[in-house]
Each structure stands twice: as structure tokens, then as C-alpha cells.
Design brief:
Layout (H helix, E strand, L loop, with lengths): L2 E2 H7 L3 E3 L5 E2 L1 E2 L9 E4 L16 E5 L10 E4 L2 H16 L11 E2 L4 E2 L4 E2 L4 E2 L4 E2 L4 E2 L4 E2 L4 E2 L4 E2 L4 E2 L3 E3 L4 E2 L4 E4 L4 E4 L2 E4 L5 E4 L4 E2 L4 E3 L5 E4 L4 E2 L4 E2 L4 E2 L4 E2 L4 E2 L4 E2 L4 E2 L4 E2 L4 E2 L4 E2 L4 E2 L8 E3 L4 E2 H36 L1
Parallel strand pairs: 4-5, 5-6, 6-7, 8-11, 9-12, 10-13, 11-14, 12-15, 13-16, 14-17, 15-18, 16-19, 17-20, 18-23, 19-24, 20-25, 23-26, 24-27, 25-28, 26-29, 27-30, 28-31, 29-32, 30-33, 31-34, 32-35, 33-36, 34-37, 36-38
Antiparallel strand pairs: 1-3, 2-7, 21-22, 38-39
């Protein structure tokens, strides 16, 4: 990365306050930045760090008025602008595998698009296919009749089993399992009998799946992940789940079988949704929340079981006052007892 401040501002449609000729060679956070780094002020709580940062320039809000020895670039959204630059820098620093490694293997009737990269020890099973510009890192397994759309990257040791469809521009991180059997059993004479899982998984476009997450195949029918949804590390998505578009599932979360989530749903870390319920559009589950019943569009919930977030906060505050309330009750009981003794005496 080698640009001056004025060039970066032009790229971001920003305004320079200060010396536009200052050279920028890298990107960094406010507290860790050194000479040559461009940083950003995305949260007002970090304004004090602007006095001590070693950054050569900083992205700020368009209404920022602070004065500093270094130049600032005023933009509408500093965090988004910084992310744009990070994306460009990532392209400079990332070195993906190229070509087809000699240890990669394939079955019959495999289709491989143009400009694909297939790294060491990848196996593509019968009748599977990858579109143009797909990158499969070392140790990836692509099962029978499964397909991957253009410009998707699959990182090392991920397993995509049979009858799975992955859309375009997806990122599947290391050690993900897509299309494993759903957790389906029924008790027969005290023994857990396995229910065959013969369905599919369909993952839309621009989906990201974090490391060590699992998306199980449907018992029959489809487990579906909508376009633009982002799934963190260590997430469990069970059989026949449907997740709408542009949802965000944070690490450690679990969604039980046949649950249906709308668009733009947000699940905080370690949250959960019970099976066979419907979660409306734009619902937010706080960290650790467990949805045990359907939630209407726009609901914001927390706690176990998940209830309205504001109600839950009031309950928590009330619980903190319980010790004092109990002392007050004991004092009142004592005074009542004393009054009764006087009246009866």
C-alpha cells in the first residue's frame, strides 16, 4: 500500500484537513498505529486516543472538528471507509493457491470452471462441480452431486458432503462441516433408532461461514441459508432450518431442527433457538438468550427464556434489590410482632 492522504481521500470521496501529501504505507488501529499508518475513529469513546496516537493520518466523521498535528480525512462512515481500504490491502497481502495440485483427486463427471485453484489433497467426488474462480484450499472434500458457485473460497479441511449447493462469492472457513446428518433419532423399545437424513443443504450467495461450524442436511427437503447471511465460528445449524437473508449468527449459537428465521435476524453469542419455531424479520437475540417460542418481527429479546429485553433488564435490576427488600420485610415483620405484643399485653 503506497498512497498519500489526498489520493486516499479522493478514493473515499472524503475531505482532507491538513497535509494531503503525507504518505501512507499501511493500516492500523488508533492505539497500535505507527508512522506511515492510516487509522480511523469509529467510536466517540476513543476520541481521547487521538491525542496519543502515532498514526500519520486518521479517518473521522464528516462533522469532526478536532485539531491535530496529523491530517484527518472526513468521511461519512469512518469504519466502512476503513473496511474498504482493508479489503484492498487484503488483496495485496493474501496469496491464494493457484492451479491444480498434483495430489488433488476427482471422481467421474466432475466439472471445473475456469481459473480455479485446487490445493493439495483436495477430493472432488462424482458429479460434483465448481464454477469459475473457485479456490479450494488443502484437504477440502466436495461430495457427490454438490456444486460451488463462482468466486467462492473454501479454506483448509472443510467437508462439503453430497447434495449440497453453495452459491457465489461465499467464504467457507477452515474445518466447517456442511451436509452432515441431522441429529434425528426416535426411541424404540428404549433404544435410540437413527432416522435417515436424505435431504439437502442450499447456501445462497455472499454467505460466510466461520471455522468449526456445522450446517446439517435436512431429514428430507432442504436446510437453507439465505443470501448475505454471516455465520460465526462454532455455530450449530440443525436439519431443516431456514435462515433468511442478511442475518448474523454469532459464535457458539445453536439453532434446533426445523426452526425458521426471517431476514436480518441477529443472534448474539451463545444464543439459541428451539426447534419448530418461527423467528420474524429484524429480530435481535441478546448474548445467551434462548428463544423457546415464536418471536414477532422486530422483537428484541434477552435472557432465559428469552423475553422482551427491556422487561428482562427491569427484572435483573429488581433482583439486585431483593437483598435490601428482604431486610426491609424482616424489619417490618419484627415491628409488627412488637406492635402485636403491645396490643395484646
Amino acid at each position: 500500500m503506497q498512497n498519500n492522504v489526498a489520493q486516499i481521500a479522493q478514493k473515499l470521496n472524503g475531505a482532507v484537513i491538513g497535509d494531503g501529501e503525507v504518505q501512507i504505507t499501511s493500516l492500523n488501529g488508533l492505539q497500535d498505529a505507527q508512522a506511515g499508518d492510516l487509522s480511523f475513529l469509529g467510536n466517540p469513546s476513543y476520541t481521547s486516543v487521538m491525542k496519543t496516537t502515532q498514526a500519520s493520518a486518521v479517518l473521522v466523521q464528516s462533522d469532526y472538528t478536532g485539531e491535530h498535528d496529523f491530517p484527518v480525512i472526513q468521511v461519512e462512515n469512518p469504519y466502512l471507509a476503513f473496511a474498504t481500504l482493508l479489503s484492498e490491502l487484503e488483496q495485496e497481502l493474501l496469496i491464494h493457491p493457484t492451479g491444480i495440485h498434483p495430489t488433488a483427486t476427482r471422481g467421474a463427471n466432475v466439472t471445473i470452471g475456469e481459473n480455479c485453484a485446487i490445493d493439495a489433497n483436495v477430493h472432488i467426488a462424482d458429479n460434483a462441480g465448481i464454477a469459475d474462480n473457485v479456490i479450494l484450499y488443502a484437504g477440502v472434500y466436495l461430495g457427490r452431486n454438490s456444486t460451488i458457485g463462482p468466486d467462492t473460497i473454501v479454506y483448509p479441511n472443510t467437508t462439503i458432503r453430497e447434495n449440497v449447493t453453495v452459491g457465489k462469492n461465499c467464504i467457507i472457513h477452515s474445518n466447517v462441516a456442511i451436509g452432515s446428518d441431522g441429529f434425528g433419532f426416535t426411541t424404540v423399545d428404549g433404544i435410540q433408532a437413527k432416522i435417515p437424513q436424505i435431504g439437502k443443504v442450499i447456501i445462497g450467495d455472499n454467505v460466510e461461514v466461520g471455522s468449526n461450524s456445522a450446517i446439517d442436511r435436512a431429514t428430507f427437503g432442504v436446510t437453507r441459508i439465505g443470501n448475505g447471511t454471516k455465520i460465526d465460528n462454532l455455530v450449530q445449524i440443525a436439519h431443516n432450518v431456514t435462515i433468511g437473508e442478511n442475518s448474523t449468527i454469532s459464535g457458539g449459537s445453536a439453532i434446533a431442527g426445523s426452526a425458521t428465521l426471517g431476514n436480518n435476524v441477529t443472534m448474539g453469542g451463545n444464543s439459541g433457538i428451539i426447534g419448530h419455531v418461527t423467528i420474524g424479520d429484524n429480530v435481535i437475540l441478546g448474548a445467551g438468550a434462548s428463544a423457546l417460542q415464536p418471536l414477532e418481527e422486530g422483537a428484541v429479546v434477552s435472557g432465559f427464556p428469552a423475553i422482551d429485553h427491556k422487561t428482562n433488564l427491569r427484572m435483573i435490576m429488581s433482583q439486585r434489590r431483593l437483598p435490601k427488600a428482604l431486610r426491609t420485610i424482616r424489619d417490618l415483620e419484627k415491628r409488627i410482632e412488637e406492635l402485636e405484643q403491645k396490643l395484646n399485653g
